[in-house]
Amino acid sequence: MAIVASRFYGVPLNSIEVIGVTGTNGKTTTTFMIKSILDEFNKKQPF
After folding, report:
1. HSE on the CB side for 21, CA within 13 Å?
2. Chain segment 23-39, per-residue pLDDT in tens
């Protein structure tokens, strides 16, 4: 079903930028730093 849906609707990840943060320590700090950087460049953010 996922294959049929992606062929019908397209793949949204091809048209958006995604940033993933993984690990044990520093995720909150890293996400706040990324948000600050994106704010400086006036990028649209989903959070």
Report:
1. 12
2. 889 999 999 998 898 88
